[in-house]
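Hey team,

Filing this mostly as a record. A colleague (T.K.) asked me to run one chain through the structure pipeline before their review meeting, and I want the input and output archived in the tracker in case anyone asks later how it was produced. No errors, nothing strange. Just documentation.

Input sequence:
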Amino acid sequence: MTPQIFVLDAGGQYCHLIARRVRELGVHAEIRRSDVPAHEIRGARGVIISGGPASVYDPGSPTIDPEILDGSVPVLGVCYGLQLMTQLLGGDVRPGQKGEYGLATLSLEDGWAASRLLAGFSDRKQIWMSHKDVVAGLPAGFSRIGSTETCAMAVIENPSRHLYGVQFHPEVVHTAQGRELLANFVFDICGCVKDWDPAHQLEEIETQIRKTAAGRKVFFFVSGGVDSTVAFQLCVRALGADRVRGIYVDTGLMRAGETEGVAAMFAKLGDDVRVEHAAGEFLGALAGARDPELKRAIIGEAFVAVQERIIEEQHLLNARWVLGQGTIYPDTIESGGTAQAAVIKTHHNRVAGIQKLIESGGIVEPLQSFYKDEVRAIGVQLGLPPEYLERHPFPGPGLAIRCLCSEVDAEPIARGDEWLVPVRSVGVQGDFRTYAPVLATEEYPSKAVDARAAATELVNQTAEINRVIALVSAIAPVGSMRVWASSIVPARIERLREADRIVREMSRASGFDREIWQFPVVLIPFGTAERRDSVVLRPVDSVDGMTAEAVLMDDNLLGAMAERLREIDGVAGVFYDLTHKPPGTIEWE
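Output structure:
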């Protein structure tokens, strides 16, 4: 089947999300490298140029074949794609006075009502931004039809040449009417017809599993999470239960009661899964590790080492077995898996040892092209119970990446009414990964005062941060606490495990867990000499994990939760993460 829409990959973290949104409209879309020759995509009805982390004026930045812009096929440039189109056609792109990440408001300019791209739109709509450069001058024949407070050229077009550009991301769920904009481009401007039916996904996935396995058996390290459970069940369905085996590795980095719960779940499903206790191997390997990327690499390689040991013990060192994984698409793109994508964080299932297995054809990953919500939909088709599919996501590396560390002791730095806390967390700004300190405010606002917009503005105004947290409760003011040199040790993991248990218990009892997509609980080495850690609460709402909104909690629930967390030995304070994604990732590492 020939794709009707080609998405050109300029390295953006949301490149595949664009293709997916088009497919959700019922239209076949595929991705190509940004520098694909124009003649190779001439059969398409339309082209979309993705966002990307580069600046168009930097040497070696991604570009496209200029013939694609000759007017023979409609083109939509998104974010970097808009800037690249502008530059190639003689316009002016410059660094903005400040970056713009997260929520913004689109204002429509004179003449917008005649735009086919914005048909059905209304003024003052929420959009999702992630950029640092701006268009300062339009190419000949283009007009401006949309702007934001800090971005004059948020929507531009030259309808006579079928060329359109948006600085925001219509593909993310937090852009109001983003789906309508893409539908306007795909159907009205490009003239596409529906030709893509995702109802046949199961058959296609099973066919691919059988092709990749090529007669071999599949061995899984299952986590009990949605992804690995669905992937395991897909392989059982495609190959038969006698060709699929699973082991759950207790790394010592699990939540309270997690191992027992997962074992019971697979027993109920009737699957061949056993528990391997390996806490000593993982915690020993992590001893002294502080750097986030190093921790992930250690955990990933430890998984490979445990896998090799188990396979040897079970005499599976032959060509009759391959490794199965529940890797989903965000894992690959945040690890730099698209053609030119920046690395946001290296997932444990994308470390060097795993990459070697992939290159040798030794891995089956039936979900690698899907997002979390799509995986749940596949699980429904498989008949898995809702309680297995509605679990909040939990990272494969476990509590290790929620237990932050520091190389040295350091004091917070005053920034007006806020404090710069030198604990590094990961973020994504303009498609680049950033590791940066967090900005802490002295007092958490009531839920009646939505501080998330203020947090977004603080990040946009402060180049050295990617995250804003607010103090809920502590034994001392922020300015009198400090960051302490720390690493992964059993006592800190137990402290975090207890905090996570309390948060999950109270969220479930109050019903708050049904209002959110995920609720990471993070331990940071920030406190007093007597109590050297603080807990950060990070409840978010999302659809696919690619973008997320921070969610505010009921004041009474938050107060009660903070009081119980403060009772944990070694905990000095409780903070609340007010940051959307972008600019801060959902996890802190």
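Quick notes for T.K.: The radius of gyration is 24 Å. Residues 292-313 form the longest helix (22 residues).
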